[in-house]
Amino acid sequence: MSIAIAIDGPAGAGKSTIARAAAKHLGYIYVDTGAMYRAIGLYCIRKGVLPTDTDAVVSLLDEISVSLARDEEGNQLIILCGEDVSAFIRTEEVSMAASRVSAIPQVRAFLLSLQRDMAKEYNVIMDGRDIGTVVLPDAKVKIFLTASAEIRARRRYDELVAKGENVVYDDVLADVIERDNNDMNRPIAPLKPAEDSIIVDTSELDLQQSIDLLVSTIEENSK
Q1: Using CA atoms, how far apart are residues 130 and 8, in angstroms rounded to an integer?
Q2: Which of 29, 73, 77, 141 has the fewest beta carbons under 10 Å from its own?
Q3: Cα 90 to Cα 93: distance, rounded to the nearest angstrom
Q4: What are the pLDDT digits (tens) for 68-117?
Q5: Which of 14, 16, 38, 146 is nearest to 92 (CA)?
Q6: Is residue 72 classed exposed, middle or buried when 0-12, 13-18 and 19+ CB atoms within 10 A define those classes?
Q7: How confident is the model at residue 186 (pLDDT cuts 50, 70, 90)?
Q8: At 122, is the secondary structure helix, strand, or coil?
Q9: Rounded (10°) angle between helices 149-162 and 169-185
């Protein structure tokens, strides 16, 4: 029987990086559900459709296909309509679009069955905004991974600067706060810890310490 680990938390908490490393250490399949929403957000941008225009976004779903693949090193790739778009979904514009489209019930339903099927077939560590509350409510372990808004903004700022992007820290912080507000107050599957979640705060931890804490938390609670 497969084992599912649900990792939820706000934008910029390092869920993808930390959960990916933990999955590799534990021999689980890593599933980044946020990348799926980013792919849909990217598709809307490319089609000139506002992610806040629910009817227009929903009308695109019939022509969208989203799947996951892995490269030779085991890294997750996000495939949008047959194209590997992994390199195009981490911009601030796509991030905000993803936040908007993820509030649309039809978009969530569109991706839900794919996410659940993965958990049935493999031992997975799946991260997102509502994994423990909606997608995998029966997950073996549920973790809410978080950090302060200021720390998350600083991490995101450093990441973007390292990529050569011209950004201002205060703008990144404003985006983080706005996305938190969007995610926590959307009417469908708002961001919140599941009642039986374990809160893991990485504000004062470096990357390796965060990975070690996540791995030990999973190991201690999945026996």
Answers
A1: 6
A2: 73
A3: 8
A4: 888 887 778 899 999 999 999 988 899 999 989 988 999 999 999 888 98
A5: 38
A6: exposed
A7: confident
A8: coil
A9: 120
Task: Tell me if 45 sits within 8 A of 94, measured CB to CB.
Answer: yes
Q: What does the block give as tokens for 41?
A: 């957000």
- As a whole number of angstroms, the longest Cα–Cα distance in the chain is 48
**What's the whole-model pTM score?**
0.78
**Cα angle vertex 190, ends 200, 14, to 5°?**
35
3-state secondary structure of 210: helix
For residue 63 the two structure tokens come to 């022509």
14-58 tens-digit pLDDT: 888 999 999 999 989 888 888 999 999 999 999 999 999 999 999
